[in-house]
Design a protein that fits this description.
The structure is a single chain. The chain is elongated, with a radius of gyration of 32 Å. The chain has a 9-stranded antiparallel β-sheet, with no helix packed on it. The protein is 11% helix and 38% strand. The two termini are 29 Å apart. Helix 1 runs antiparallel to helix 3 and helix 3 packs parallel to helix 4. It is mainly beta. Strand 42 and strand 43 form a beta hairpin. The chain has 5 domains: 176 residues, Galactose-binding domain-like (Jelly Rolls), CATH 2.60.120; 92 residues, Immunoglobulins (Immunoglobulin-like, Sandwich), CATH 2.60.40.10; 237 residues, Alpha-Beta Barrel (TIM Barrel); 98 residues, Immunoglobulin-like; 254 residues, Beta-galactosidase, Chain A, domain 5 (Distorted Sandwich).
């Protein structure tokens, strides 16, 4: 994939960092000794016993960090499966017992030594050498530590014993974390390590760095008994010290402040990071030093207006993300963190919500360095932590995460899981005092001027953005299976972009939460319809919505659908960046010629290409992109334009036809053939034969009765044409010779007015038809029957590679594609994308490969949709919006797709104008050409343009 080298480099750096930390560091820095592995790819083996489920009741071995379910122990639980029936808790009381022996350097005897757990599910009791080191920690997603210096044997072996209870003894912890709409697991799933520090040390820091260059920091100190000095140095990206400040410390908290001139600011578009070194001195001696990265930026919530970063109003293009990988569950896997941030940014998104708990700290570091706005969320899935148990968890989250510039909001729970006692606690530990939001699913729960209500439709959103609060849904366009996500997004995004108080929002959600079931032959389980909610699959397979979102959210906003007659190389462009001028981007144009149907290859050839600098268009302004095309550009089939951002990443690639369908089909409709069409009329069957291909019509119905290819083998297309909406009653059939061709004219009463068949001597069968409708329809056009089980694949010139819906036409471009048959139901195994069955747009020609041979359909008319067979798409409780009759449809309009929310048609229509039914008033005409075989084509390719 595009980012593979960067991913490998990052993972190598991450591993080297942890290897270095595993050795004692001399001097003034914290010394780290890992007791577990650093992540799921680098584990250590501990002794393990589980009380129930698989492999229970005996001592065994387990890799740490991990979930014990993924190691073959215990039982699987999807949280909310057990909410209504207490009897289902039989494995929820699983307890895991861990043992591990380790040695501690004798040199640590005069230091403070802590044992740190970055995450353990759920209640965790820790003993060293048989002694409890502190109270049981309750809460799964938080880093916690114990001072264990008094229990250690320095220079000797020590025994660590940990008891982990999958379910908590605290009911509110279970309500907030465990009885939720996601997979729940057990075990020590994040790293465990020892840290050794001087007795006097810096416990943690809280930074507030503003866009004006002002810098404040609270340093929280421990064991300060005499006068100490705390010094802070700020270094730029080149390692140059740009500011130094110091103060005397005689208490547990000191505040330092300074100012730098013209700081390079942090935004999601410009993720500029500074380095901070903080040291503790006693006299002339440096006692301890720690470091961090941060960014200068100012986050403002201007009530009744919007969200501002560094004085600029921003719109959120966000997605919800679970920490999850199929083989490892939620256990620490740094490679996935980087892959996910890259994919989110590839979709041109700028924000992520950490649903529904704080992630690994590594994920936040990547958001800092690559640039995403983050909502960091305290767990609370529709139920909140009780105050007593929740307050220390909130503190653990904020003191770990507060210095990440990517975090712009704290979320106090999800959908009613808000303990209002916590709202003012975040500011106790966050010196920058970020705004607290409530991610909720009921109107009237706005806080701090921001309404985050979930799953409002387009029309209710129009009302909300006119009310007093900023509207930023923390969940919308639910992406279960193939619904939501990119479907309906274009309308919703335009609404937010243009509304003063529309702040954008967060699609639910990023990836299907499919777990490899070690108890079910390693099948990937999404728990029925519960967890197939992603824009990508469990291993990040891209669904059709992925590229649709990429186009809709493109900061280079181009709405041109087709080239105008007087096209001169200029394309209207709107800059939807917030901080980037388009002259920081480059644009590559390519003149394309498409592979013909007879070519074994797919795709296109590039005749000419060049790059141009982006135009001087300021953020949120409009202008024109001038391509400076060569004089002979019209000789190409199509033109492609790719926008490339300042970091050399593709923003999006648009393709427009230069030639009409008629021109693109030149040569294809010709074939080597005799100059005759044979006609046989007997027993109500009229048969036309040309070039060894025969097509029979039922003279009593006008329908195709039988087809044979050039080898005399049957092609099982039948029962057509059938009008997919409207009525058609057979009236009459007549047939006659027309030049070298032969014509069959069928007339009807009702909405279908006429069908004219014309068999050419080449064997091509032309079908011209017209119908009239007056009203609102889900789809319009004609269908035929063909057995799905005979189909092996399709090749086409048209838009692809993904199928489309009326409200998800974005993200597909014109090319020659090929797709083998699959029966993929989006969001379920085997996650083969693109799906084969569905609606495909702007088809010039399509060749179906079948067990009976090949046949082709081509149209000189633009905007043809081809429907391939029956397929699934979520629409409330219906398996799909009603499909057209038949198996193969040639359509002029297609339906929209909804989501799991709402009911039936109201659910789809609520997505906005693009999701309404098709208003059709008048007559529609179209011509199709069929070839039931494999012709020897006389393709007349254009002479290639010189490079």
């Amino acid at each position: 994939m595009k980012y593979s080298l960067k991913i490998k480099a990052f993972v190598l750096a991450y591993s080297l960092l942890n290897i270095l930390h595993s050795f004692a560091q001399s001097g003034t820095q914290k010394e780290i000794q890992y007791l577990s592995g650093t992540d799921v790819k680098n584990t250590k083996i501990w002794d393990f016993w589980v009380t129930a489920g698989r492999n229970s009741g005996k001592w065994s071995k387990i890799q740490v960090p991990s979930h014990w379910e993924q190691q073959g122990f215990g039982a699987y639980n999807y949280g909310r499966d057990n909410v209504t029936n207490g009897k289902n808790f039989r494995f929820h009381d699983e307890k895991g017992f861990y043992k591990y022996e380790f040695a501690v350097p004798a040199t640590w005897q005069d230091k403070e030594v802590n044992i740190v757990f970055e995450g353990s599910m759920t209640d965790t009791e820790v003993k060293i050498n048989g002694k409890l080191v502190g109270p049981v920690h309750q809460g799964s997603f938080y880093s916690f530590k114990y001072n264990i210096g008094t229990t250690l044997k320095f220079g000797q072996k020590n025994l660590l014993e940990v008891k982990v209870s999958k379910m908590s003894d605290d009911k509110s912890v279970n309500g907030a974390e465990r009885l939720a709409d996601y997979w729940i697991f057990g075990g020590i799933y994040r790293p465990v390590y020892l840290e050794a520090l001087p007795k006097a040390n810096i416990v943690w820091t809280a930074i507030d760095a503003k866009a004006d260059g002002s810098f404040r920091m609270n340093a929280h100190l421990k064991n300060i008994t005499d006068a100490y000095t705390v010094e802070a140095q700020i270094l730029d990206t080149k390692g140059k010290i740009v500011a130094t400040t110091k103060t005397t410390a005689s208490d547990s908290i000191v505040t330092l402040s300074t100012n730098i001139k013209k700081p390079i600011l942090w935004t999601a578009e410009t993720p500029n990071l500074y380095h901070l070194k903080v040291s503790l001195h006693k006299g002339a001696d440096k006692i301890y030093e720690t470091s961090d990265k941060f960014g200068f930026r100012t986050i403002e919530i201007r009530k009744e207006d919007g969200i501002y970063v560094n004085g600029t109003k921003i719109k959120i293009k966000g997605v919800n993300r679970h920490v999850f990988w199929p083989e490892y569950g939620r256990a620490t896997y740094p490679e996935a963190d980087l892959v996910d941030v890259k994919l989110i940014k590839e979709m041109n998104m700028n924000a992520v919500r950490c649903s529904h708990y704080p992630p690994d700290a590594n994920f936040l570091r990547i958001c800092d360095s690559l640039g995403l706005y983050v909502i960091d969320e305290l767990a609370g899935w529709q139920k909140a932590y009780a105050t007593k148990v929740g307050e220390p968890l909130l503190k653990e989250m904020v003191i770990r995460d507060a210095n990440h510039p990517s975090i712009i909001f704290w979320s106090n729970g999800n959908e009613g899981g808000h303990n209002f006692d916590f709202d003012d606690d975040f500011g106790k530990y966050d010196l920058s005092n970020r705004t607290v939001i409530h991610a909720h699913h009921k109107p009237g729960n706005a806080i701090n001027g921001i309404d985050c209500n979930h799953y409002e439709d387009y029309y209710s959103t129009k009302k909300l953005v006119e009310e007093s609060n900023i509207y930023m849904p923390t969940e919308f366009l639910h992406a279960m299976q193939d619904g939501g996500a990119g479907a309906g997004l274009a309308d919703m995004w335009e609404l937010h972009w243009n509304a003063k108080k529309g702040a954008g929002g967060f699609i639910w959600d990023f990836a299907d939460e499919g777990i490899v079931r070690t108890d079910l032959n390693n099948m990937i389980d999404v728990n029925g319809n519960n967890a197939a909610d992603g824009i990508v699959g469990p291993h990040r397979e891209k669904e059709g919505s992925f590229n649709a979102i990429k186009e809709i959210y493109s900061p280079v906003h181009i709405t041109l659908k087709e080239l105008p007659q007087d096209f001169n190389g200029e394309i209207p462009v709107e800059n939807r960046y917030h901080f980037t001028n388009l002259n920081q981007c480059i644009f590559k144009w390519e003149l394309l010629t498409y592979k013909g149907k007879q070519d074994e290859e797919i795709g296109h050839d590039v005749l000419k290409s060049n790059t141009v600098l982006g135009p001087n268009i300021a953020p949120t302004a409009k202008g024109n992109l001038s391509l400076s095309l060569p004089a002979d550009w019209k000789n190409a089939d199509a033109i492609a334009v790719t926008a490339i951002d300042p970091n050399n990443n593709e923003i999006y690639r648009w393709v427009w036809k230069i030639k009409s369908n008629t021109d693109l089909l030149k040569g294809m409709l010709e074939a080597e053939s005799p100059k005759t069409v044979e006609v046989k009329d007997e027993k109500d069957i009229l048969t036309l034969t040309a070039n060894a291909i025969s097509v029979s019509f039922d003279t009593k119905t006008g329908a195709i009765a039988k087809v044979k290819n050039e080898n005399g083998a049957a092609i099982s297309i039948s029962n057509g044409p059938v009008l997919v909406n409207g009525t058609a009653t057979f009236s009459a059939l007549k047939h006659f010779k027309e030049g070298d061709a032969y014509v069959v004219e069928v007339s009807y009463t009702g909405n279908l007015q006429s069908v004219r068949w014309k068999m050419q001597p080449t064997g091509w069968l032309e079908m011209s038809y017209q119908y009239a409708l007056d009203g609102d329809y889900s789809f319009s056009g004609i269908s035929f029957n063909y057995p799905e089980g005979l189909v092996m694949g399709a090749k086409w010139l048209g838009k692809g590679p993904n199928r489309v819906w009326k409200n998800r036409l974005s993200g597909v471009t014109l090319d020659v594609y090929e797709n083998r048959y699959n029966n993929t139901q989006t969001g379920t195994s085997p996650w083969i994308y693109p799906e084969f069955k569905g609606y495909y747009s702007d088809i010039v020609w399509m060749e179906l490969s079948t067990l009976e041979g090949k046949f082709t359909v081509a149209s000189p008319d633009k905007d043809l949709f081809v429907r391939l067979f029956d397929f699934y798409g979520i629409n409330a409780n219906n398996p799909h919006p009603k499909l057209p009759l038949g198996d193969l449809s040639f359509l002029d309009t297609i339906p929209a797709i909804g989501s799991k929310m709402g009911t039936n048609d109201t659910n789809v229509r609520g997505f906005g104008p693009e999701s309404e039914k098709n208003a059709i008033h008048g007559t529609t005409k179209r011509t199709l050409n069929f070839y039931f075989g494999t012709p020897k084509l006389k393709v007349q390719k254009e002479e290639k343009l010189p490079n």
